[in-house]
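Much of what follows relies on a compact textual record of a protein's fold. Here is one such record, which you should read through line by line:
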Amino acid sequence: MPDSAPSVRRSVAAAVPLLLAAAALAAAAPGTARAAAVPGEATGPTGQKLTVSETKNINPAGLKVTVTGTGYDVTKGIYLAVCRVPATPGEQPSPCLGGSDFTGGSGSTHWISNNPPAYGQGLVKKFTVGADGKGSFTLELTVKAKDSGADCTQVRCAVVTRADHTHISDREQDVIVPVTFSSGNGGEPTPEVPAGTVRHQAVRTLTPAVGAAQHMAADPAAGRLYVASDDGSRRQLTTYDTKTGWITGTPVELPAPVSALALDAPARSLHLALGDRIATYDTRTGTLADNKAKLSGHVHLLAAHPAGGTVYAAVQPARSVTVLATGRNPSTVWRQIGKPAVHPFPVAGLAVDTAARRAYTTYVGPNTSTTLSFHNVLTAIDGRTGRTVGTPLSLGTTALGSMGVTVDPVSRTGYVANLAAGTVFAVDLRANRVTGTLQAGSNPKALAYDGGSGTLYAASTTAPVVTAVDPAGKREKEELTAGDRPSGLALDPGTQSVFVVAEGKVTQLQRRVSPTQTAAPKAVTAVAGKQAVFTASATGTPAPTTGWEVSSDGSAWLPVAGASGPRLAFTAAKAHHGNRYRAVFSNSVGSLRSAPAVLKVTAAPKPPPGGPEPQSVGGTGGTTPDSTGGSSGTGGTTTGGTDATGGTVGGSSYGTEGSSSNGSGTGGGDGGGGGSLASTGTSTLGLTAIAAALAATGTVTTLYALRRRRTL
């Protein structure tokens, strides 16, 4: 009876390209099934157990998981939520998704208690009490990357239980099961956008523990944001880290409502308007010094000259601006410079030109000759004398046409919000004249200018947006959603962030830029069996990742699975000749593809006539006959190791099939650039195992197999 091993080997070899093609298509196809769920479990301080049905690579948009808890003390209520993992042992897991959601309506938190306060009846879930008196529960929880309560894209998060607000300091209920999130796009690049596209993305929302956020000031050099909040009875000043959003230090209780803030960072002084007086917070020591200056009215605007030792205070109903010398040390006794500069109408905007040591104010009031027009004026105040200088600049007669103001001290340009017209005036401060009008969204008032990016930000008083404007191009670039009627702006160039006060919270928007290519891949010529290397690079904010794609015809492209980084290297095979490779640069704004680069593969040099044969690039199959006299075949021609029976593993071209005489000869290879598989003939490897083994050789093997399939 003839030996059937060769035919089996031929069947397996023919099936390999099909399996590889299926594997490649499955890897490239979007919307494929997720990987198997990876559950997680943790044990608490008193033996509680918390089990989460899925904890790894969760879709950041949200996933419903099943959470089971056992062994809990039923005399104490708990919250089940997704929270930040504590930075230090003994710290409460916080903040949490869903915020203070006792009802579980968000799906991201549940209140579990068997003895809640009276107001909690009907709001809580109850423990199931076992024979041992311990409580258990099984609940569905929505796990997502962020909402207004927490941002797990910036910090490590976990599904946790912790004591409810009736036992807020009890850490014995803390049980923590960490979770991680996927990229959210299934590994696919983000959508393509033009190089250098700018997008502002909300990275977090800061919600004060006491009351609503009213005013803020940013210190880019220190990476700090100071937020004053008020609930009507209590007032606090809270300091946040601008990179993490975490609170630093202890919030300071304030003696009165804050009406304005001004930071003198070099002097380590944050000035706070508290009604008719000004207090100073020492940012180094965290101490507050009240009554640094007493004024004759309500201080509603403040501006400081950093390192200049000067503060400008706009006072109502006096319609004046008082200049104060503060010195460069928080302990310095303040003194008033000159007399208050009185304006014909209430001051609407105030900003400092540090280059000229001046403050600029705006005001608007009705024209005395007619009720149908208004005075809109920009005025300069000398910080050395406290006096108005130069000629007040008229900005037209539009109602509410001269409101917020900001200054670019480098170009000596002032920007003034024309609220009613939805525009911003650009003013040459040296020449004291209007040089242009910029469209700036809907009814702008608060303004901020970022000299690093050349962007003007204008907050709307009637819509939930901040408009980013390009003054050089005289165009609106982007509308940023930041809560209804934003009232204040602050900049941190260090993190490329603009902070917005709206709806009692502070939203941090980061300026991000899509990739711009800095080096394109170039055509490569490689000898078969040797390494081919392509390189490419790009810049962007955040720094882009680099993936690679390959095409045999320049029209149909497949991702090179597992290839990441600016360098793509693999062993070239004859079948790769003519392939095109391109880099894909991607970040959260979008992606950019490079122009393709072609690979040329040349044959390995032949040995000189009569000389010794060089070692085969791929090695040859063994020649030792088997126990029944069958001889093995010749292996492939690319680099590969020799298996136990003499067959070559790793060759890239067809070998000659071994002969068989009542034996089990070794077959030749039939693989791709990653290697061929030689069968010993003693057993048949299952197709699933073959697919798994070949998948480990890399995507380039897959691509070669696809090409071979088309020639069969």
Q: What stands out?
A: Residues 353 and 409 are 6 Å apart (CA to CA). The helical segments are 5-28, 687-695, 699-711. The first strand starts at residue 40 and ends at 43. The mean pLDDT is 80.
